[in-house]
Design a protein that fits this description.
CATH topology: Rossmann fold
CATH class: Alpha Beta
InterPro entries: Flavodoxin/NO_synth, Flavoprotein-like_sf
Organism: Enterococcus silesiacus
Protein name: Flavodoxin
Radius of gyration: 15 Å
Number of domains: 1
Number of helices: 5
Order of helices and strands: EEEHEHEHEHEEH
CATH superfamily: Flavodoxin domain
Largest sheet: 6 strands, parallel
Distance between the termini: 11 Å
Shape: globular
GO molecular function: FMN binding; oxidoreductase activity, acting on NAD(P)H
Oligomer: single chain
Strand content: 15-25%
Helix content: 25-40%
Structural class: alpha/beta
């Protein structure tokens, strides 16, 4: 079985170099598109303590979390990860990698033997170091080629998403047969 797990933050974001208010976070938009194409459920990592709405405040908090290696807590996910062989993992690129709430998820869940397909939203930094960081936190999982999407282009990313999924979907079908 396949599941999508993602962290996304709406509110004030930097889009194309300008601050804009988003009612839905960019990573959630991508996660929903993937969920629709694959016809699977998507599960959000929702922080127990909400991140600030102001862009600069969240940038400062994210930097602090990374510097002290903090592990923010998230609300319980309502699915059994053990039943899923494939996990699409989505996140924004914060300070060159995934947010520390994603590290919390990775450390609290056994992803050994699972296939992880990472996707991230960014405004110019691509996947950053997140693939290496994923391999470090999930050494017994198979980390596949990731999909970086500029946050300012998520609404127009359907073809890129479909191409990425088609490339990897044949591998998923082989693994689950």
């Amino acid at each position: 079985m396949t599941a999508i797990v993602y962290f996304s933050r709406p509110f004030e974001n930097l889009i194309g170099g300008k601050k804009e208010y988003l009612s839905v976070g960019n990573t959630k938009v991508v996660a929903q598109k993937i969920a629709e194409i694959l016809d699977v459920d998507a599960f959000a990592l929702i922080p127990e303590i909400t991140y600030p709405k102001a862009y600069q405040a969240v940038v400062t908090q994210a930097e602090q979390e990374k510097m002290i290696n903090e592990r923010p807590k998230y609300q319980p996910l309502l699915f059994n990860l053990a039943k899923h062989q494939t996990v699409y993992l989505g996140y924004p690129n914060w300070w060159g990698t995934f947010p520390m709430i994603v590290a919390t998820f990775l450390e609290e869940n056994d992803l050994s033997g699972k296939n992880i397909y990472p996707f991230c939203t960014h405004e110019g930094s691509g996947m950053g170091n997140s693939i290496n960081d994923l391999q470090e936190l999930c050494p017994d999982a198979t980390i596949h080629i990731g999909l970086p999407i500029r946050g300012s282009r998520v609404e127009k990313a359907d073809i890129a998403i479909k191409n990425w999924l088609q490339h990897d979907q044949s591998k998923i079908n082989q693994l689950e047969e």
